[in-house]
C-alpha cells in the first residue's frame, strides 16, 4: 500500500497464495485512490460472470462501508461506479470494447492468470496518458512464463523473510522447512492419522534448527518479525513485485497445508490425478507451475515403465479400456491407433497399437479389442467433415487438439471461474455435404494440446499413476512416444511463447509410410 501511494512506482505485481488477503489489500488501495487522489480507475476480472459477482459481493460493500469513499459515490451501474471527480470502470478480459475504451490512471487487474492471451497487454496500454499512473496486477500463479509470472519476474521479486526467535537468522518462509513426523503413531498401517500428525508439525530454522510450532502465537511471530527482501536488484525502480505462500497469514493453520500436500501426493501417485498438486503449488505455495521440476532427465524413462506382462495377457484389475486413433494425411488415408486398459488408482496398460487404412478397419480393431464404442475416439484435425460423419454413424467420439493452454469454465458448485484442459462444443457433421436438409449436431471434445501433453509426460515419467507398457513392446512405439520434444522459449520480454518442437528419430521416420515422389 505504501508503494501504491508512491508516484515513483508505476507497476506492482503480486503473485501469491489464495485466500491470503491480497484482493482485500488492493480494494483498500482503490479506496485510498478515490478518497485521496482521484483519477479514472478500472477494475478488470477474467470473465463477465466473475466481474458481476465481485462487484455485488465484495467491491460495492467495501465502497459503501468506507465513509470517505461513500461520501463521493454518486451512482452505481452494471459497468462500474461514478464518484465525484472520477469514474471507476469495471471490465473483463473477454471484452475488447471495455478494455480499449477509456484512458486510465489507476488500473487494478485481478486474477491475471486467467486472462485470455494478449488481453493484459491490451489493458495496460490504457494508462499511457498519465505520467503518474499505477498498474496493480494481482493473481494466484498460473504456469511458469505466463503473463503473471512474467510481470512478477520483471519486478524486484520481494519475498517474505523473518527472523528466527532463537538465533535471529533472517530466512525466507519456505514450505521445504516445514517438517512433521512419519512413524507408527502418525502413520499406522500406511495411513495418516492427522490428529496425531498435527502435534508434530513445526518449521525448522535454517540457521540453528529451532522448531517453531503450529500455534497462533508462533505464526504471528513470523508476521511481526519479518520483511520483504528483494531478490532481483537489477529491476527498475518503477517495478516492484511481491510473493508469499499460505504459511504467512496467521489465520491459516499449517496442519491444513500439510493435509492438502499429502492428499495431493496421494492423488498423483495412487490416482494419477495431477490437479490437486497443481492447485497446491499455485494456490497454497503461491508458485507458478513448472512441469520440468517433476520430470526425470535422460532418454530411458519409457524403459522403466515396462511391466511383467505381454499383449493379450488378462488383467484382473481392469475396469475399462479406451481406443484412440489419429487420421494421417501423408501417403493416402491411414490411421495410427493405440489402446489402453485402465484399472483402479490411476493404473493403465498398453494393450495394443498399430496402423490401418480405412475407417472400416478401424471399427474392426475396436471390436476385436472389445473396446466399448463410447470409449473410442478419433482426432478430427484432418478432413474433419468426413471424420464427423464417421462418428455420427458409429458412435465414436470426435476429438480435436487446440493450441490454447486451457479453457475457462464456471464451477457450478462454487461459482468460481476455473481452468479446464478440455471443453465440449457442438458441430454440424453435415456441413459441406450436398442435398443435406436435416441438420444434426455432434459433440466435439476439444482438448488443450500443450496441457494434455504435459499431463502425459507426468504419466510416462512415472510421476503420477502407474502407466505401464508390456515387456515386449516394439521399438517403433517407443520411438513414436519420444519423437516430440517439449521446448519452452521466451521472447524479448521474458514471456513464455510455449513453442513445442518435434524431432523424429530415424526409427520413427522408417515406421511412417513412404512419401509419394516429389512431395
Please provide a brief summary of the model:
The chain has 15 helices and 27 strands. With 519 residues, the chain is α/β, with parallel strands linked by helices.
Structural description of this entry:
It is a single chain. With 519 residues, this protein is an alpha/beta fold. It folds into 2 domains: 11-177 and 220-284, 3-Layer(aba) Sandwich (Rossmann fold), CATH 3.40.50.300; 301-476, no CATH class. Strands 1, 2, 3, 4, 5, 6, 7, 8, 9, 13 and 14 form an 11-stranded mixed sheet that branches. A 9-stranded mixed sheet has the order 15-25-18-17-16-19-20-24-23.
Which CATH-level-2 architecture of the largest domain? 3-Layer(aba) Sandwich
Helix vs. strand class = alpha/beta
Helix content: 25-40%
State the total count of DSSP E strands: 27
**What is the overall pLDDT average?**
87
What is the alpha-carbon Rg in Å?
A: 27 Å
Characteristic key phrases:
single chain, 15 helices, 2 domains, 27 strands, globular, alpha/beta, disordered C terminus, eleven-stranded mixed sheet, Rossmann fold, nine-stranded mixed sheet, 519 residues
Protein topology:
Elements lengths: L10 E5 L6 H15 L4 E5 L2 H18 L1 H6 E5 L2 E4 L2 E7 L3 H4 L6 E5 L8 H6 L9 E6 L7 H8 L3 E6 L6 E3 L5 E2 L14 H5 L3 E3 L6 E3 L2 H9 L1 E5 L8 E5 L10 H16 L5 H10 L21 E2 L12 E9 L5 E9 L4 E10 L2 H10 L7 E4 L4 H11 L2 E6 L4 E4 L6 E4 L1 E6 L14 E7 H12 L5 E5 L4 H7 L2 E3 L13 E3 L3 H6 L8
Helix pairs in contact: 9-10
Amino acid at each position: 500500500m505504501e508503494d501504491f501511494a508512491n508516484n515513483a512506482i508505476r507497476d506492482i505485481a503480486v503473485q501469491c497464495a489464495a485466500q491470503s488477503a491480497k484482493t482485500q489489500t488492493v480494494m483498500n488501495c482503490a479506496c485510498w485512490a478515490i478518497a485521496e487522489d482521484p483519477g479514472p480507475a478500472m477494475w478488470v476480472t477474467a470473465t463477465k460472470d466473475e466481474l458481476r459477482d465481485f462487484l455485488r459481493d465484495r467491491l460495492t460493500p467495501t465502497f459503501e462501508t468506507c465513509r470517505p469513499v461513500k461520501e463521493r459515490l454518486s451512482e452505481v451501474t452494471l459497468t462500474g461506479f461514478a464518484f465525484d471527480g472520477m469514474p471507476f470502470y469495471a471490465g473483463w478480459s473477454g471484452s475488447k470494447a471495455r478494455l480499449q475504451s477509456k484512458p486510465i490512471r489507476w488500473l487494478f487487474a485481478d486474477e491475471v492468470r486467467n486472462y485470455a492471451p494478449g488481453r493484459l497487454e491490451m489493458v495496460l496500454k490504457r494508462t499511457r496518458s498519465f505520467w503518474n499512473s499505477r498498474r496493480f496486477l494481482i493473481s494466484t500463479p498460473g504456469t511458469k512464463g505466463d503473463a503473471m509470472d512474467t510481470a512478477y519476474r520483471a519486478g524486484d521479486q520481494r519475498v517474505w523473510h523473518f527472523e528466527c526467535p532463537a538465533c535471529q537468522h533472517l530466512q525466507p518462509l519456505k514450505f521445504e522447512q516445514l517438517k512433521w513426523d512419519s512413524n507408527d503413531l502418525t502413520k499406522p498401517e500406511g495411513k495418516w492419522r492427522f490428529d496425531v500428525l498435527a502435534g508434530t508439525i513445526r518449521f525448522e530454522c535454517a540457521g540453528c534448527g529451532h522448531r517453531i510450532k503450529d500455534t497462533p502465537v508462533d505464526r504471528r511471530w513470523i508476521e511481526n518479525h519479518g520483511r520483504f527482501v528483494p531478490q532481483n536488484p537489477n529491476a527498475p525502480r518503477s517495478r516492484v513485485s511481491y510473493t508469499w505462500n499460505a504459511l504467512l497469514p496467521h489465520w491459516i493453520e499449517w496442519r491444513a497445508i500439510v493435509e492438502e500436500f499429502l492428499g495431493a501426493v496421494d492423488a498423483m501417485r495412487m490416482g494419477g490425478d495431477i490437479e490437486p498438486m497443481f492447485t497446491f503449488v499455485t494456490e497454497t505455495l503461491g508458485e507458478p507451475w513448472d512441469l520440468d521440476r517433476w520430470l526425470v532427465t535422460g532418454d530411458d524413462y519409457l524403459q522403466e515403465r515396462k511391466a511383467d506382462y505381454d499383449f493379450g495377457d488378462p488383467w484382473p484389475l481392469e475396469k475399462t479400456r479406451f481406443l484412440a486413433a489419429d487420421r494421417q494425411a501423408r501417403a493416402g488415408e491411414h490411421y495410427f491407433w493405440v489402446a489402453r486398459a485402465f484399472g483402479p488408482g490411476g493404473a493403465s496398460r498398453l494393450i495394443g497399437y498399430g496402423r490401418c487404412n480405412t475407417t472400416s478397419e478401424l471399427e474392426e480393431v475396436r471390436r476385436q479389442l472389445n473396446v466399448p464404442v463410447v470409449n473410442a475416439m478419433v482426432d478430427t484435425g484432418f478432413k474433419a467433415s468426413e471424420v464427423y460423419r464417421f462418428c455420427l454413424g458409429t458412435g465414436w467420439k470426435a476429438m480435436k487438439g487446440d493450441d490454447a493452454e486451457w479453457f475457462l469454465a464456471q464451477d457450478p458448485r462454487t461459482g468460481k471461474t476455473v481452468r479446464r484442459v478440455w471443453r465440449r462444443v457442438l458441430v454440424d457433421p453435415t456441413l459441406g455435404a450436398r442435398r443435406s436438409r436435416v441438420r444434426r449436431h455432434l459433440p466435439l471434445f476439444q482438448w488443450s494440446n500443450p496441457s494434455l501433453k504435459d499431463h502425459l509426460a507426468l504419466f510416462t515419467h512415472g510421476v503420477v499413476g502407474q502407466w505401464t507398457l508390456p515387456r515386449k513392446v516394439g521399438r517403433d512405439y517407443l520411438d513414436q512416444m519420444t519423437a516430440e520434444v517439449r521446448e519452452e522459449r521466451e521472447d524479448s520480454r521474458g514471456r513464455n511463447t510455449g513453442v513445442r518442437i518435434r524431432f523424429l528419430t530415424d526409427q520413427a521416420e522408417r515406421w511412417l509410410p513412404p512419401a509419394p515422389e516429389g512431395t
